[in-house]
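Record type: monomer structure entry
Structure origin: computed from sequence
Chain ID: A
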Amino acid sequence: MNEINWKQIETIVDQALDLPKEQRLRFIKTECKGKPKLEGEVTQLLDSISNSEGWLENLEKYKRDMYDELADNIELLSSEKSLIGSKVGSYQIEEKIGEGGMGSVYLAKHSSGDIKHSVAIKIIRSEKATSDNIKRFKREQKILAGLHHPGIARMYDAGTTSDGYPYLIMEYIDGIPINDYCEKNECTLGKRLDLFIDVLQALRHAHENLVIHRDLKPGNILVDRSGHIKILDFGISKLIEDEEDNSLTKTGAHLLTPRYAAPEQVLQENITTATDLYALGIIFYQLTSGHYPFDFKELSRHEMEQAIIKQEACKPSTKVSDPKVKKQLQGDLDAIALKAIRKESEHRYRMANEFLEDLKNFQKGNPVTAREDSFRYRSQKFFKRHKQGIAVTAGILLFLIGLTSFYTFRIAQERDQAQVQAQRAELQAERAKQVSEFMISLFKSNYPENTLGEDIPVSSVINAGIENLSKQEMSPVNRATILGVIAQVQVKLSDIESAKKLSTQAFNLVIDSVDNHNLGTVDVPTIYGQVAYQSGDFEEAYQAFKIGDSLYKANDLTNTYEYRTLKYNLVNLYTEQKKYQEALQVLGLLDPETYGDDREAIIEKSDFYNYKAIALKNLGRQTEALSIYKKALEYRLEAYGPNNPEVGTIYNNISSLYISLDQYEEALEYAEMAYKIRKNTLGPSHSLTATPLWSLSVIHRNLNNYEEALRYADEAGTILKETLGADHWRYATTIRGQAEVLIKMEEFLNAKKKADKAIEIINTNYASNMTFKALFSATYTGIYKGLEDLDKAAEYYSSSISFFKEGLGENHPQVTQMLISYAKMEMSRQNYEKAQPLLKEAFKIQKNNEQSDEELKVTQTLIDESVKKLQRASTASSK
C-alpha cells in the first residue's frame, strides 16, 4: 500500500470518471504506462465504483475503503500476464476477459487444433486464497457441478494448476446483457417475452436443484450470438439445503447488486426463491417498459434502502410513450410485473413456475393469476382464447357437416334407385342425423353461460363431446367414424395418449363391423396406425395399415385420396425402419401424374415426391433425391403458401439431405427456415417444432459447435418430453443425441450417463424394437472407445450388429457400416484376425446391395491391408 501514492490513484480515478466509459480504459493505460501495479489499483477501484449503482453516501470514504481492501492484491495483478499461453488441463489460455474479487477469468481454447472448443477459465491466485475465498470458490464449484441446463453456463472441469492455483473450466459465452441485446436489436415485446421465458426456465432448473442465485442482474444474463440466453456467475449463490456457513451469507450481502436487491436482502432477512424472482421482476419491468421502476438518482444509501423497502412502483405502462406498447402492457403485463416486485415475499411469485405460467397464459390469451379474478375478466379471456378453439372445433364441424351433406345427397339419389337401395339409404339418413346431434351436443356443453366464462381449451371441448358421444345411441360404424375424426385432431394437437385411446376404440369398432362401411370408417385403421407409429409400436402400425388396405379394397375405395394417404403412411413407416427399398416399391404402385390439378391433387403430388426423395436419399442417391425434393417443395408452396408447417417439413428434409452430403452450411439454412415456420405456425412447444431443433443439433455437432448442439438437443428433448412423454422413443433419441455430442467433446462419463438414460427408456418401453436397440447400443461403442475399454466397445459392436440384423435384415446397409467400423477398431489394436471376417462380411453385403464400385474398392482395400498385416504378424511370430 505504501508503494503507490493514494493521491495519485484518486486523481486518475476522478479524471477517468469525468470521461465517457469507452474512453476510460485508454486514459488509464496512458496515465499508468509502465506501472502495472498502479494500473491494477486504478482499474479495480474504478470498476468497483461503477458497479456500486449509487449506493455511496461518501464517495471519497468508499474509494479509500475499497483501496484498502484491494491493495493487498497488487502482486496478483502485476503477475497475471504470465498465464497467457500457459496450459490448464487440455486448454491453452489466450487472453484475460474479466476480473472478479477472487481472481481472473481467461479465454482458452482446446490445445488440439482438431477440436474447436473455447472455454472460460476462472483462476483464483494463491495471493487471493483466503479462507473465505476458498470456501466461496468451492461453493461455486459445487453449485455449477449440479446444474445442467442450456440456459446456464456449464462447468466442464475443476482442479488445481501446476502452480497451485485453483481453477474452474466453464462454458465460454460470447454474448451481451439481455437488456442491451433487446435495445441493440430493437426486439419486439413478443421477442422480449420469449427471451425472458427462457431465463425463467433456466432459473427454474436452478431452484429445482436447490440453488438460489442471489445476484441476478442483466450483466449476469447474457444473450449469445445465436439469440439464446445464458445465466452466469453463481459465485455467491446459496444452496437451499446448506445453511451451516453464515460467513458466506454475510459476504454475499455485500456482493449483491443494489438495483436488483429485494427488500429482504436489504433487511438481511431470510433469502428464498422469491428473492431471485424479485430481481427478475425488476429486469422484466425494464425489458417491457425500458425503465427502472424506482428513481435512485441523487439518493443516499439510507434513502435508497427505504425506497426498496417501502416505495411502491407504478405500472410499467405509465412509463411508456409508444401508444402501441403502452396498450400491450396495460392489464396483464402490468399486473405480472407488479406482482413480481411486491415488497412482501409471500405475496410475489414464490416459484419460477408461477411466473412462467402467468407469462405463458398471457401469450395464449388465458387468464393470469396476477390479475384480480372476475367474471368479466375471465369472459373476455374466454372469447379471445376461443379463436383457436372455435377454429379447430369448426374444422371438425365442417368435416362432419360435409359428411352429413354427402349422405343427404346420397339419400336423394338413392331414393330414385331400386327398392333394394332403400335400406342403405335409411342407414345413411340415420348416420347424418346422429352426426348432427353429436355436433350440437359438442357446442352446447361449451357455451360460455354453461362454463361461467371459464377459459376452456380445445382438449376440454373435445373431451366434453366424447363424453356426450358415449351417452348417445349410435351404430358402431357411425361411432367409429366420429371417434376416428376426433383422434386425428388429437394427433394434430400432439395429444398422443388421448388419440391412442380414442383410435383404439374406433379401430375395435371397425374390426367388429363386417359391413355398412363408409369412407370414414375404412380410414380408421390408418388413423390407428398413425398413432401406433407415434407411440413407437411399428409392428402394430404395420398390421393396422394392412387391415386398412383390405377394407379399402373390399369397399371399392382404392381410387381415393384417403387410400393413397394410407400408402404414404406405410412408406413413412418403412422409412423409419430404414426399409427404403420397400418404401420405393409401395411408391411404385402410385402414379401422381393421374391425380389431377386441384389443390388436393397438388398436395398428394407433394407427398409422393417427398416420400420418394426420402427413400432415394437414404439409399445413397442424394443428387436424384435433391431434385425430387425441390419438386415436392414447389407443390407444397403452391398448395399451402410459404408460412405453413407442411412447407417446413420439406425444408427440414432438404436440410437432412445436405447433412448426409456433409454440406452443413446449406443444411443450416434450411433447418433454420423449417424451425422458424413451425415455431410461428405450430408454436414453440409443439412436438413437430422439435424436429428441426433436432436437425440443428445434428448440424452443429458436425460443425464442432458442441455447445449449440447440446442446447438444441436439450430444447428438442424438453418439448418432446412435455408433449409425448418421458417414455417416448423420440425423447430418448434426443438424449442419445446429447450423448453423441458429449463423446465428441471427450466427456465420456457424462456421455455414458445420457446413454444409460436413453437405453433405459428403450429397454423399458420398446424392448421388441430391434432397430431402436441397435442404434442406441451403437452409442456405447464410441463411449467405450473413448474410455479406452476396447473389449467393452467390442461387446457393444457385436450386440448392435445382431440387433440390426434382427430388426433390418442380414443385408441392410446399416449392418455394413457397423461391421466396417468394428473392423477398423480391431485393426487399430492390431487384431487383424478378428477384423478380416468382419470386412469380408461387409464386402459381401455391399455386393448383394449393388453398392458403388468406389465403396467396394474402399472395403477391399481394408481387407487387403488386414491380410498383409496378418501375414507379416504370422511371419514374425514363426521366426
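Annotation 1: The longest strand covers residues 91-99.
Annotation 2: Residues 92-172 form a domain with the Phosphorylase Kinase; domain 1 fold (CATH 3.30.200.20).
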